[in-house]
Amino acid sequence: MENSSATIHQQEGMLSYEDFRNEVLKDYRVMLESRETSLLGRREVLTGKAKFGIFGDGKEMAQVAMAKFFRPGDWRSGYYRDQTFIFASGIATVQQFFAQLYADPDSNHEPFSSGRQMSSHFTSPNFDTRGKTLPLIQQKNVATDMAPTAAQMPRSLGLALASKLFRNSPVLKDQTDLSDNGNEVCFCTIGDASTSEGHFWETVNAAGVLQVPLAIFIWDDGYGISVPKKYQTTKGSISAALKGFQKRNDTNGIDIYTVKGWDYAGMCEVFEAGLDKIRQTHIPAVFHVEEITQPQGHSTSGSHERYKDAERLQWERDWDCIKKMKEWILENNIATEDELEVIEEGAKEIVKQSRSRAWEEYVNPIKEEVSKAVDVIRSTIVNDIERYNELQKIAKGLEMNRDVLRRDIMHALSLAIHAAGKAAFADDLINYYNEQKKYYKSVYNSYLYNQGASSAMRVEATEPVFANDAPAINGYEIINRYFDQLFAHNKQVVAFGEDVGFIGDVNQGFAGLQEKHGEYRVFDTGIRELTIMGQGIGLALRGLRPIAEIQYLDYLVYGLQPLTDDVATLQYRTKGVQHCPLIVRSRGHRLEGIWHSGSPMGMIINSLRGMHVCVPRNMVQAAAMYNTILKSNDPAIIIECLNGYRLKEKLPSNLLEITVALGVPEILKEGDDITIVSYGSTLRIIQDAANRLEQHQISCEIIDVQTLLPFDIHHSILESLKKTNRIVFVDEDVPGGAAAYMFNKVMEEQGGYRWLDVAPRTITAKPHRPAYGSDGDYFSKPNAEDIFETIMEMMNE
Ligand SMILES: Cc1ncc(C[n+]2csc(CCOP(=O)(O)OP(=O)(O)O)c2C)c(N)n1
Ligand SMILES: [Mg+2]
User: Where is the Transketolase-like pyrimidine-binding domain (predicted)?
Assistant: First the structure.
């Protein structure tokens, strides 16, 4: 230890001793403020002022050390223990931390999630209000946090990969607002126990293969809640377990460093050298930070005395990083005990004040809303003394409630409306209730989707134009020509996935395009759907326009977690602050057998609220959907028809201009007797059935919904139903899946039940997976006979 101050002094290079000393004392202060935040934060929960707390106590020293090397342009993708790093980097104030702990919905107080996320979930904006990327190179960036363990891993890979593309892709050289020649490092943090997740291993492997500037910091406090390392990690040490990934001179791989979470000088030294190397070489690294403590246990939900023995608890007290920092400062004569005491007292005071300000700012608006509601209730005029007394009682109850929340206001107003009864002059009361309802809706229910200028909902339809001699070519050739033009036109676009690069995807959509547009624009990945999605998320957050491919829709399940937890919730959980314009490309519905015919659309639309779900029936329509999404900053999944690549389609002459308006169905065939609602491959089978029905004088109106999310926003299906009075919803999902969703939309949301002459139906696939072979397909998926017979039955009812 004796030489440590000399080492750090040297390593700080140009720093004068005074600067060095100030730097150390500043770090000590930030550590103390952060610790005090954790201590007071826990108290706020235990006294009922906040609902749940999770804090970064014990990890302070490692994080002030790491933050020294976090530069503008860099990205952090971490988890809920990183408050100290965030404070040290100037991304959040202690007051904002408390505002989040209280769930303050005002974005001026809590700019990361507007009270929607629990404590320690930070965010930086990446697009401006007009939808243009911000100069990300000038700010310290944070991919907004998530609670699922290791969920930050897949996107970390993409955030780091972006640097590699910016450094190597010739077309991106001029993107100097987004990258400084790929010098940006992604700082990823993870707990020791969360390294047990597959996400961690898939990411580390991919980073070792790709050679991207990813720095993974593992906070090793020995536990995942109560479960110790011996049940989590082979050999009880993640750095030992990772040994085979270690890079040698003649291989790719990762660098591995181990440091101690109480050794300030040691960590500063290793982090500085390690991060410099990552920045320069793009060789990823793991920093295994061992011997970290957790003074208050995992969260406010329990106490760690339940699972740590006396010896461990004593060890945690002895090796607490704040105690160690103080000892080190004193041993090295950097400051005196008295000087440190001043810093300690100052830190406590600052946190106390920040907490009080955050609380005041949080409760004052609620108090005002309460007093307004009380006034409105009190001033409601009723003729009946009983009703009058009841209203006064409700008002008083609300006024006297010391832990009042907004839900109590709504409850009181609702009680008051009913107490006032119909005869009263209760208009003001009712109006106020409705106004507040609307206001709270904007507070708590807005921004599931982009509400700004860059929303895909603003894109209008542009129809394809066909020249007189337009050739009819295979579907895969249409999409191939489209992608070719797209790469030439939009340099932010990159496409990748299994077999996407060299052979140009299994159905040749990208055939020849790697050769033509370069290996940094169209490229292969390993078989790793989870991190293919993560790759796409990270690239999109950094301002690129990734098309990330899932080879078959059946395998989306492997990559679904980052889509449902990260992409789909992104707008909502940041209240529109962060955008992730990712396009997931896949292909599905019918072809062959149990894992190549899937159409799990119910699963998709239920798990991906917050993304657009586009279901083209052919490749011209698919191209139009890519264009629509690319004109916006919204994420989407576009599911092409597996059996559509070899069907002939006429080639439009305006492939790059065509667009689809999302949520606007297309009437494929007009008819009078029955409305058939569907999408994708099934439409071709419906056409066959409709032709046969036509011979029985039954006229079918066939509607392609085009997109499932959003769904028929102008209620055009209802208009059709008003004409036909009969409706059937057809798709290839299981019973109760997406067809039931469409049914619900039209019957309940559009009020379609009022226009029915016969019971509406859904025709779906069987509940089992589809059997192999053409007969397997016929008897597993809806077929023309099913549709014909169901409709005949409906006509005879
Ligand atoms: C996917 C998932 N599984 C379980 C949980 C519940 N959970 C939250 S934190 C945690 C332990 C994480 O331990 P570790 O990674 O060591 O981080 P630490 O909290 O110790 O810093 C668990 C099991 C979760 N959030 N996400
Ligand atoms: Mg842990």
Answer: 473-647
Within 8 A by CB and 6+ apart from 502, the residues are 514, 524
Phi and psi of 145, rounded to 5°?
A: -75, 160
Ligand 1 atom with least separation from CA of 151: 1
Confidence grade of residue 383 (pLDDT, cut at 50, 70, 90):
confident
Measured in Å, residue 301 CA sits from the centre of ligand 1 at: 13
307 Cα: distance to centroid of ligand 1 (angstroms): 15
Q: What is the CB < 6 Å shell around ligand 1?
A: 81, 147-149, 191-194, 219, 221, 223-225, 298
Ligand nearest to the CA of 197: 1
Q: What is the mean pLDDT of the chain?
A: 96
What spacing in Å lies between the alpha carbon of 149 and ligand 1's midpoint? 5
Please check the confidence at residue 634 and state whether its pLDDT lies above 50.
Answer: yes
Q: Is there a contact between 791 and 729 (Cβ–Cβ < 8 Å)? A: no
Residue closest via CA to ligand 1's atom 12 equals 224
- Residues linked to residue 141 through DSSP beta bridges, in sequence order: 75
Q: Phi, psi (5° rounding) for residue 653? A: -95, 0
In this predicted model, which residue has the larger pLDDT, 154 or 381? Answer: 154
User: DSSP labels for 43-80?
Assistant: HHHHTTSSS-----TT-HHHHHHHHTT--TT-EEE--T
Q: Round to whole Å and give the CA distance between 425 and 434.
A: 16
> What is d(CA 733, CA 603) in angstroms, rounded to the nearest whole number?
9
Phi–psi pair at 16, nearest 5 degrees:
-75, 165
Q: Looking at residue 382, what is its pLDDT? A: 87
Pick from 65, 108, 72: nearest CA to 91: 72
The model's confidence at residue 8, banded by pLDDT at 50, 70 and 90, is low
> Measured from the CA of 54, which atom of ligand 1 is nearest?
19
Read off the pLDDT of residues 466-506 as tens digits, 9 standing for 90 and up: 999 999 999 999 999 999 999 999 999 999 999 999 999 99
Distance 560 CA to ligand 1 centre (A): 19
Angle between helix 321-331 and 60-67 (nearest 10) = 60
**Positions of E strands within 227-277:** 227-228, 255-260
Q: Looking at ligand 1, which atom is closest to the CA of residue 225?
A: 11
Q: How far apart are CA 49 and CA 41, in angstroms?
A: 10
Q: Which H/E stretch holds residue 393? A: helix 385-400
Ligand 1: residue whose CA is nearest its atom 18: 191
CA 782 – CA 463 distance, rounded (Å): 30
Q: Which ligand is nearest to the CA of 148?
A: 1
Task: Write out the residues surrounding ion ligand 2, Cβ under 5 A.
Answer: 191-193, 221, 223
- What's the confidence (pLDDT) of residue 13? 57
Q: Which of 149, 199, 312 to mutate to test the pocket of ligand 1 (most atoms within 8 A of CB)?
A: 149
Distance CA 645, CA 482 (A): 13
Above 70 in pLDDT, residue 574? Answer: yes
The DSSP letter of residue 231 is G
Query: For residue range 544-570, what is the model confidence (pLDDT) as tens digits?
Result: 999 999 999 999 999 999 999 999 999
Query: 100: CA distance to ligand 1 center in Å?
Result: 20
Nearest to 624 by CA among 477, 468, 513, 459: 459
Question: In angstroms, rounded to a whole number, what is the distance separating the alpha carbons of residues 555 and 551?
Answer: 7
Res 436: pLDDT = 97
Given pLDDT bands bounded at 50, 70 and 90, which one contains residue 424? low
What does the block give as tokens for 163? 């640097």
Q: What is the pLDDT of residue 316?
A: 97
Query: What is the position in ligand 1's atom list of the atom closest to the CA of 59?
Result: 21
What Cα–Cα distance (Å) separates residue 663 from each residue in 236, 448, 614, 712? 52, 16, 9, 5
21-40 pLDDT, tens digit each: 999 999 999 999 999 999 99
If phi over 0 gives left and psi between -120 and 50 gives alpha, with beta otherwise, what is residue 455? beta
